[in-house]
Each structure stands twice: as structure tokens, then as C-alpha cells.
Amino acid sequence: MFSNIKAVNILTVILQAHGVRHAVLCPGSRNAPICHNLAATGTIECHPITDERSAGFYAIGLSQAHDQEPVAVCVTSGSAILDVSPAVAEAYYQRTPLIVIAADRPAALIGQLDGQTMPQAGALGSVVRRAVSLPEGETDEDLWYANRLVNEAMMDAMSGGRGPVLINVPLHEPLYQFDEAALPEQRKVTRIESSLPAGSDLLPRMVREAERPMMVIGHTNEKIDASTLNGVAVLMPVFAESISSVGGSALNECAYALRRSLVEDGDSYAPDLVIYAGGTLVGKETKAFFRGCEGCATVQISPDGELHDVFKNTTMVIRCSLGDALRNLSGKAEEGESPDDDGEKCKRRKEFTRRWAALEQSIRQTCQRPATRFSQLQVVQRFAGQVSQVGNSSAVRLVCLAQRRHAFCNRGINGIDGSLSTAAGYAAGQPKDGHSLCVIGDLSFFYDQNGLWNKGVDGRLRILLLNNGGGGIFSRFEGLKKSPARSRIVMARHDTTAQGICVQNHVEYRQARDMGEVEQAISWLTEDYADNTSKRARLLEVLTDIDEDAKALKEQYELIDKKTWQETGKP
Minimal CA–CA distance to 40: which of 185, 178, 171, 187? Predict the structure, then answer.
């Protein structure tokens, strides 16, 4: 029988999955559930050592005797973790995969004169490759987080240069209930240290073994050769957003339709393998869709080897660039199907790719229908294909909906600060007879208005400022409408325009309050001269109504709800 504490059971399963066969156990009350579980597995040999100062070094010796296998050392809460620190430091410089597991009191008791308590999570400082502290709750989110943290720690202990890690486990009472008959199934995440040379068969083999593989590419600025990307698209559906260097698609809108059962035989669109590369995805529907695909495994392409478990089902991390992964897959596509490939699987993959392509094309055509009311969406649709830089929040969501061409966006942190300054720097890198168009919202623009004050701002910078008098993205949240703080505080409603800022910074300025005035200003905003470096930057401020903007976006999605996209042909 095993512990009733779910985090302890998760820890036990993942230690086994990553090959821990020996554990050094020190006595204590707080760590008793962990010790009990390790002893109850039957697959982990337990070595009782009373003194933590000796236990850590004893574990190093066990690892040396077993070809540098990972060995766990489990201590109770309080100063016990400090007593194992000399051994941890030795393991760090020997590159020994020592797994320090420290039981802890609940966070609320730390510093409250409760027995055997101290801040443990950072107690081993810089001589561990990673230190994690497991969540105390038992919600689905907590349990996913616990799984991810233990996997991250084990991957760091075992891959690369190897070394010690700390897994801190806060435990609530009751501690001594052992009623679980079996340990739960848990996901193991492995890391592959590889640059994926063109001759590697790792990814192509995974694709051949899958029936419904897909590639999803998040935020990335890495330049990718179009022929390489097309070679991969022969093997499986490849989707990205406009903030990806490979260009955008209507994946988020397809996910919207699939999650609402608007697509005939919608279950057949769920992948069994996702190869995920790049950074942030803007679309919440996309993330929710892939998180809900049962039986789907994600392989993450990660240049730094870090686990970013976007879809909450990652099973492998491959340390390589997006370009390496694409070239690896494209090279295998050029060779044709392997002789050992299952012919029926190949047919199903091709049908899966065809269906996704048809669905995406139909929904994209619907989403690109011109909005019927004057709004930020209608304006962005008019400039679609010309945007090079885009601010965060509503602006990037509109550009992703309307434009397929890649647009740069600061999605690393997703903050509103610095978008205008980044656009100014990008424009300064353009040819003297070229320009860069930045689409930005009002709060982002006013926050970063000093980006216009800097030297080097000239006629190569063009700005489409979407001003609806506040943080428009917050107008979509139904629950927020009940708050009296919604308008003045959360949405930061205002009556400010950019005219004075433009005068102050010698920026040419125009204003538009309807689509007719926008049309009149388009050529002014986008035309080029022989030498734009001798001209002044230009800004078109479009003033819209925040409620009309929300209605326009809602109406666009209602076209999907009403299955208008099926008019272009069923996938």
C-alpha cells in the first residue's frame, strides 16, 4: 500500500521512470511518507543511513558503483537539508546525479516558530542544477505542475553535464495514511541532447509511427527556408501564427470551431502526435484544443533544452533549433516513405493532412471577410499583409486574425512596454528607401511614447495607432463587467490622443474617425520615397468605439458559429 498524499505518489512513479534504483533514507517524521513509498515500490533498494552528513556521500558512492546512475537521498525537514550540503557540493563538481529529496512543512508555517522549519527551497544555493518545490494542493493543475517539476529536475540531473538536484516536498498532516493500493500512471518526460543532423531518423520515425501527426510553431524570429517548410508540410499539417517567422494560419479559429463541435467528425482532427517548436502561442483556443486531445503526445523542439509544457502532454524535449528539426524532417520527406512504413498509416496521414488543409482554408476565408462595422478589426484587415511590427494585447490578436505574413512582436514576456521602441529600432534597420509599419494599441503607445523621442526615428517608421480610449481586450471578459472598477481602473479609460505627442516629437500626424478617412490616409502612411531617412516618421491615429470593436470581433466569430465557412466547401 502507498501513501494517500498524491504528490508523494507522483514523485515515486517518476523517480522509477527515470531509472532510480537506489535510495538513501534518513530517519524523520516529516519524510516518513516518502520513505514508506520508496520502500514499498519493490524496485528501489533502500539504504537506511542515520546521519545526513554521511548519507549524501554514501549516495555518491552508490552512484559511482553503478556507472553514475541517479541515486536519491531523502531527508526530513529543517536543518537536515543543510547537513547534506557538503555532499551536494561534491556531487556538483563530480557531475554526479544526486537526487536530494527534502520533506518540508507547509509554506504557511515557515518563519512562524513551528518545529523543524526553515526556508528550504533555496537552501542548497548554486551547487544544484535545479531546485524545485512541489505544490501543496491536489487540484488537477497542482498535480500536472508536480509532474512537470519532478520531470524537469530529473532531466537536469541526467542530461548534459549531469549533477545534483533538489526536490523539496511540502507535506500537510495527516502524514501516515497508506491506503492507496497502487501508484498512479504518470507521464515521463525525456530530454534528447541532439542537434538533429539531416541524417537522424528520430523525428521521421516518430512521424511514421503516428497516424495523425501535426507540427505547431509558436513565436519565433528564426529565418526558415520556404522549400524546407513545404517539404515538412507534405508529411503532416504545419500550423503557425503571424508572430512566427514561417507566417500565419487560422489554427486558432479552426480550434474554436472544433472545440464547439461545429465540424463534422471533429474527433478525427485530433492529433496523436504534436511536434511543437518556437515560443508563445497567442491563441487560447489553440492551447485549449491540444490540451484536450486524449492520447496525444507532444515532442518539444527546444534550442535551450528547457521544458515548456504548453499543451500539458509533452513526453520528449529535443535540444535543437526549429531549422534543424525542419531540415531533418524535410530531408526524410524528399527520400520518400521508408520501406518499413505502414501503408495504411501513410494513407491516414495524407488524409489527415488533406482534411486539416481544407478546414483551415475554409475558415481562413471566412475570417478574412471584411468586417461590416467600423472598428479596429476592419482597419487592421485593410492593412493586412503590410504589418511588420505589432504591439501586444488586442493589436497582436487582430493581426493574427487578419494577416498571414510574419510580424514581429515582443511575446517573450507579453508586456505592453517597449513595443514602440522596438518598432523604431526595427525601422532604423530598414533600407533608406523602405519603411516598417507598426500596429499598436493606445495604452501600449502612450506607455512607450519616449520611443519617438529617441534619435534615429525618421520616415522609415510608420505607425497605425488603434485608439478606442482604453484597454479594449478587457471589454471581452463577461465577468469583469460586474466590477465597478472595470472602466476607470482595469480598462484605464481615457480621452487622450497622440496629436500633441507627435507635434512634440516631430512626427507627421493624421487622424481618422471612419473608414473613409482611413482610405484617404492609406497611401500617405505606406508610400515610400527615394530617401525615407530624410523624412519624418508618420502616424495615423484611428479613433474607434470600444464597444463597437468588441461587437465586430464577436460578429467575426459568429460567422464560424453559423458554419458560414462551410460555404467554401466541406473539408
Answer: 178
CA 420 remoteness from chain centre = 24
569 Rama class: left (phi>0) / alpha (psi -120 to 50) / beta: left
Rounded to the nearest integer, the mean pLDDT of the chain is: 91
Average pLDDT over residues 230-251: 92
CA distances from 193 to 160, 319, 491 (A): 7, 5, 45
pTM over cut 0.70: yes
Hey, what's the cell of 90? 561534491
Would you tell me how many other CB atoms lie within 10 Å of the CB of residue 477? 13
Residue 395 has pLDDT above 50, yes or no: yes
| Position 490 confidence tier, pLDDT thresholds 50, 70, 90 | very low
d(CA 412, CA 434): 27
DSSP H/E element including 277: strand 273-277
Whole-angstrom Cα distance, residue 100 to residue 120? 12
Nearest residue to 267 (alpha-carbon basis) of 309, 211, 216, 313: 211
- Give me the mean pLDDT over the 418-442 stretch: 96
Task: Say yes or no to pLDDT of 164 above 50.
Answer: yes
Integer Cα distance of 194 and 202 in angstroms? 10
What's the longest Cα–Cα distance across the chain? 82
Q: Provide the 3-class DSSP secondary structure of residue 33.
A: helix
